Amino acid sequence: MRRYGRVFREFFRACLVEELEYRSEFFGNFIASFFGLGIALLTIHIFFYQTDRLGGWTYGEVLVLLGVFNALRGFIDFALRPNMPRLLEHVRRGTLDYILTKPVDSMFYVSFRHLVFWRLIDVALGLGVIGYGLYVERYVPSAADVLMFFVVMTASLLLIYSLWMMLMTTSFWVVRIDDLSFIFDSFFDTARFPGSMYRGAVRFVITYVLPAVLITNTPALALLGKWSMAAVLAALAVAMLFLWASRRFWRFALRFYTGAGG
Amino acid sequence: MIRVSHLHKSFRVHRRDAGWLEAVRHLWRRDYRVIEAVKDVSFTIEKGEIVGFLGPNGAGKTTTMKMLAGLLHPTSGEITVGGFVPFEQKPEFKKMMSLVMGQKSQLIWDIPPLETFLVNKAIYDIDDRLFRQTLEELTELLDLAPLLDKPTRSLSLGQRMRCELAAALLHRPHVLFLDEPTIGLDVHTQENVRRFIVDYNREHETTILLTSHYMGDVAALCDRVMIINYGRLIYDGDLSVLTEKLAPYKRLEVRFSRLPNVDWSEYGEVAEMEEGTVVLRVAREAAAETAARLLERFDVRDINIEDPPLEEVIARAFWEERV
Fold first, then answer.
1. Per-residue b/e over A134-170, b at no fewer than 16 CB within 10 Å?
2. pLDDT single digits (tens) A192-215
3. Interface pTM, i.e. ipTM
4. Which InterPro entries would you find in this protein's record (chain B) (predicted)?
């Protein structure tokens, strides 16, 4: 595990050097992130001109939810998104062979090799909005709330990682689509709002099948003191299940790639 | 070090006729065809040997090498490399071998090679002292000092290949697989890469298996060669025996200001003739003398003597023999 920490640090360092090579505009990105979040806040604000509840959530609560959503999206853009097109490239060009000859887990390598560190701004801004939401709600989370928040947040990160990884793994077969991430985006965008807002089949799908709602709603609720041990354990269990599934799928894809099995 | 017995590999590939109707039909009905890429190949390579692995494109060289490196699962047969079964992909196995593919790069494109080296250092878990020592040695041998801090994208093909080799050798592998390491390089750089491989092998007793298109590579590096064609190992033995058998002639490419109208058979066998240019096959010993004769008698603009391309040689020696 320590070794993987070191490898990750090295990836981070190499990406930093790579990023600086192009002197990507830190400020430009910062402003873009800031604007994006501003618009999202405005949208919510407008909703609340019409009503004082959104699927049973108050304004402050929805802000906390938006903060969680933004932070998680920041994580996706930081570690996961940059790797998707690269895996496609690796498969297409055959450079995946180099990765497979490295004595480091290939799934770890393909998902974390490329990092866009300035996207961590979104994580920071998200945390800021969470703080602001709590302030609007006038709620001070207890130590237990915070602890549960971190546990559930970890589960959410694992879930996102697994879903993303499964999508990425399809690039062994779908080598002609340059960027599969839009599939993930359209699904993840539903997680911006309270799950209770949705009705019928949509609600069922995004709660149970592709648990987008679970991913953002549970951490927000935990921080607002509305957690239950059952929900926390369920979130962890679902995360583990998806992680296991994504791992299996990756192995399966590699067996396909290397012509073992099948 | 490397033991291979009765190795087979077959692939299932889609087969599709041309035309858009076919393409649509292909969406739900796929025809498969089985291609046998490697058939019943067996050989042993001892520690410290450099073996050249030759054959035309699609003969099964790369497929065999990929199986040795654990990248492809054999359909049947057995392989051990340094006591490991490659396809189990154990980390200990991966740490003792390395793969360099001339056509594919592992260097990070936008940043200097040194950065890739550092990433590999972390991946292979190489300790600081050993890393510094190895890097120093490789820098010296491959003359990397002026390249280490330039972005990879700004390096020439030859410079990049030298860095690729260094990146692959940082963890001091015992077995090295080189797939077309000199492809696309100019003659001078090919020479340098070859010299490096020989020196490195001598110094570290690294077992090296090398595929190449170039006779020159093989001649400079390997005492032993294996030739594979249509998936079968058709020759495994001494290089010196092979050269005489395979390439008793040289290729003479002559460019004239105006193509003279003469009977070329006096000089050699005509392989190609184009506007102003004649390519002749001339017996190895007679090549220099024939070139001199041509220069003396005609208005020659340019003349080129080279080993025949390996594919041609193999095709001649083995294909013709068979037919």
1. beebebebeeebeebbebbbebbbbbbbbbbbbbbbb
2. 888 888 888 888 887 777 788 889
3. 0.83
4. AAA+_ATPase, ABC_transporter-like_ATP-bd, ABC_transporter_ATP-binding, P-loop_NTPase
**Residue ranges per domain, chain B?**
2-245, 249-306
Indicate the residue of A13, A22, A101 with minimum beta-carbon distance to B71: A101
Each residue of A24-79: pLDDT tens digit? Answer: 666 777 788 888 888 888 888 888 888 888 888 999 999 999 999 999 999 998 98
Q: Is B115 in contact with A14 (Cβ distance < 8 A)?
A: yes
Specify the CATH number for B2-245; select among 3.90.1150.10, 3.40.50.1860, 3.40.50.300, 3.40.50.2000. 3.40.50.300
Bridge partners, B232 (sequence order): B229
Say yes or no for a CB contact (<8 Å) between B91 and A21.
no
Helix (H, G, I), strand (E, B) or coil at B247: coil
Least Cα distance to B157 among B138, B191, B119, B183 occurs for: B183
Contacts of A123 (CB under 8 A, 6+ apart): A70, A71, A74, A75, A78
The amino acid present at A12, given as its one-letter code, is: F
Measured CA to CA, the distance from residue A230 to residue A148 in angstroms comes to 12
Chain B residues 28-67 with CB within 8 Å of chain A: 66
How many CB contacts within 8 angstroms connect chain A with chain B? 80
pLDDT > 90: percent of chain A: 43
Tens digits of per-residue pLDDT, B229-258? 888 898 898 877 776 676 778 888 888 888
Alpha-carbon distance of B232 to B235, in angstroms, equals: 9
Of A242, A222, A217, A241, the C-alpha closest to A232 is A222
Long-range contacts of B88-91 (CB under 8 A, 24+ apart): B89/A100, B91/A103, B91/A104
Q: Would an 8 Å CB–CB cutoff place B216 in contact with chain A?
A: no
Structure tokens, B125: 């878990």
Q: Give dist(CA A122, CA A128) in Å, integer.
A: 10
Contact status, residue A75 vs residue A157, Cβ threshold 8 Å: yes
User: Which residues 78-107 of chain A have a CB within 8 Å of chain B?
Assistant: 93-95, 97-98, 100-104
CA gap B82, B206 in Å, rounded: 11
Starting at the edge strand that comes first in sequence, how are the strands of the sheet with B224-229 ordered?
B97-101, B175-179, B207-212, B50-54, B224-229, B232-238
Task: Judge: A98–B95 Cβ closer than 8 Å, yes or no.
Answer: no
Chain A residues with beta carbon closer than 8 angstroms to that of B87: 258, 260
Work out the minimum CA distance from A240 to partner chain B, whole angstroms. 25
Min Cα separation B49/chain A (Å): 22
Retrieve residue B5's tokens.
């017995």
Domain boundaries of chain A, sorted by first residue: 2-258
What is the CA angle B135-B164-A21, rounded to 5? 85
Q: Which of residues 18-47 of A touch B (CB under 8 A)?
A: 18, 21-22
- Res B322: pLDDT: 45
Measured CA to CA, the distance from residue A109 to residue A103 in angstroms comes to: 10
